[in-house]
Amino acid sequence: MSLQGRGVLITGASRGFGKAVARACVEAGADVFLCARGIGELEEHCRSLRADARPDQRVLFQAADISDPESASRLVRAASEQLPRFIGLVNNAGIYGPKGRVEEVAWKEWVRAIEVNLFGTVLLCRAAIPVFRRQAYGKIVNLSGGGATAPMPRLSAYAASKAAVVRLTETLAHETSDGGIDINAVAPGALNTRMLEEVLAAGPEKVGQALFDKAVQQKASGGAPPEKGASLCAFLLSAASDGITGRLLSAIWDPWLELPARAAELRESDIYTLRRIVPKDRGLRWD
User: At what angle do helices 156-175 and 107-114 cross, to 10 degrees?
Assistant: First the structure.
């Protein structure tokens, strides 16, 4: 999964899973351009990465609000101009948004979660795809998570945005199928990040007893190792995954390292995609 000679833009890279993805990319040899809203943590993380990088590797950064169209365009333009060979984008930045029943939460907070999680992903894809089309090659990794595949009561904005990101991923994969561009979504597993701390701080009265109890158990167990999801991102940014596109892959549960050998089967199937379940899928005949 070498990324040597590949330039990758990573959003939300100053903390949590984004930090793990940035480190995995640098360790695999990539030049990276990191983005976050706050400059302090971002600059500190870049210093740490540069200390471990090769002398010729570039570790660059820029603060940006990915939900703002102009900011998103400037970010991609800077990455394409400053990285020796810009071929990869990881849309990692995301927030939980408001916690509580949909009729009780602040509407502006609900909309803000959609702006960051969905609009931010769309805006960066819109800006990066033309660059990748011109060079007839590119890799986009969108972060989805469990919010896309199961209901998440009291986190409705997060769940809706992440499900939308997966369908966006599938759609854009079809739109770019003739351009040498692979676009996939990743579920990294249940991570012990600041988002988990937000659920614990909100308490069962806002997030519900079931989700709160699950968060308590996750914190105690240590959660999924972020390195596993980061390795999946590095794989999807590498030449090893060429031709694998339009999929939602679980870092924890799916045998993603075996997919290159099954690329032909994958192209002819709807495996690792979101689909509607009908009675016959469950062995029932309701016709």
Answer: 30
User: Please, which residues have CB within 8 angstroms of residue 60's CB and are 6 or more apart in sequence?
Assistant: 31, 32, 33, 34, 46, 78, 79, 82, 83
What residue spans define the domains of the chain?
A: 7-189+225-275, 192-223
Rounded distance between C-alpha atoms, residue 276 and residue 261, angstroms:
27
Instruction: Write out the CATH class of domain 7-189+225-275.
Output: alpha beta
Nearest to 181 by CA among 236, 227, 143, 263: 236
pLDDT in tens, 44-81: 999 999 999 999 999 999 999 999 999 999 999 999 99
The pTM of this model reads: 0.94
Could you tell me if 274 and 163 are in contact, meaning their C-beta atoms sit under 8 angstroms apart? Answer: yes
**Cα–Cα distance for residue pair 192/197, rounded to 1 Å:** 8
Nearest to 225 by CA among 252, 249, 199: 252
Instruction: Please give the positions annotated as active site.
Output: 158
